[in-house]
Each structure stands twice: as C-alpha cells, then as structure tokens.
Design goal:
With 237 residues, the protein is mostly helical. It contains eight helices and no strands. The longest helix is centred in the last third of the chain and has 61 residues. It is found in: Cell inner membrane; Cell membrane.
Amino acid sequence: MNPADVAQTAMAAPSADLSLIGLFLQAHFIVKLVMAGLVLASVWVWAIIIDKTILFGRMKRQMDRFEQTFWSGQSLEELYRSLSSRPNHAMAAIFVAAMREWKRSYEGGARSFAGLTQRLDKVMDVTLAREVERLEARLLVLATVGSAGPFIGLFGTVWGIMTSFQSIAASKNTSLAVVAPGIAEALFATAIGLIAAIPATIFYNKFVSQVNRLALRLEGFSDEFSAILSRQIDERG
C-alpha cells in the first residue's frame, strides 16, 4: 500500500471521540474499571478533605472558647456541670474525664488519695489518646490514595497501551489516527490517578501536621490541669 492509499484510508476512517467521556466509553473494560475506581477514590478523598477541614476548624474554635472560660476564674464545678452531659470537643472531654474521676474519689468517701494523681493522669492520657485517634480517623485513606493512586492509574495506562498495540498488530495500520485514540485512553487513566493522588498527598501532610499541633495543645492542657488537681489534693491531704 502506497502512502496515498494509507492517507486515503485514514481520511475515510471515522474520527474517534477524544472527549473525556468518549475516552472512557471507548476504553477497554479493565481500563474502565481502573478509571471508575480512581474517580470514586477521588470523590472519597474530597469528602474526607472537606469533613476534616470543617472538623479541625470547629475544634480549634471550641478549644479557644473553652480555654478562655477555663482560665477566666469560673468554678471548676460549674464548668463541669455545664459540660458533663455532653463534652463536645477533645479538651472538654479530657476535663470532664478528670473531673469525673476526681468527684468519684471524693464523693465515694475514699480513705486515701495517695494514688489519685496517678489515676487522674491515666484517665486524661486515655481520653487524650482516644480523641487523637478520632482526629486521625480516615487519614489512612488519604495516605493510601496518595501513594497507590498513581500506580493504579499507571496499571490502567499499561493495559490500555498493550491493548492498543494488539489492535495495531491486528489491523496492520500504524497511522497516527489509529494509534492516538488508544494512547489517549491509556494516558487518561494515569491523569485520573494523579488527580486523585495529588490532593490526597497534600492534605494528608497538612492534616497530620494539624493533628500533631492539636495533640500537643491537648497534652499541655492535660499537664496544666493535672498540676491544678494535684495542688488541690495536697491542700486537702
């Protein structure tokens, strides 16, 4: 076949749909599964990002208000009564847990308070660990998508290119009009993988940093509150 015949054949062939939807519909079944999975992962990633952004922002404001109230001189008993039924953030949960143990020991008529300080520290440590674990919930999803997303997309690309080469071998036509659609479909899988992985990686690092800062702030409050309670134990002892 001479070049003129090849050009005429290419012109006669129907043009491929290179839109995003067209690339998906024309892709191989395996590549479609990869694309659909990565799109769902991207939606899940953004749902987690929005949820965590709102959660951390709200928690920071609640902790600011709580610390302002705590250090304003208000009675610890009054603050405990207002929060005991439903502590709505991590710092309040630590405060309520410690005050509950404190009141249980004093109102229960304990004969010795020698181990009360250790019990209070353990109660606050357990509550702090539980709250930090809640803050870290679903961050593993971001880490997984961020690390595995590009490789999953690359798998779809490799499979798509392999299928394209098989089609080229079967048709014995190497014109760009025949090769381009298959290559575009394959590369589209990698693009979706990167679209899912890039924000997942960025926000995972951002949220881990925020969790660490909040954890340090909670540990500082726990230590300060433990010192206050320890001082009161010494005064009553």
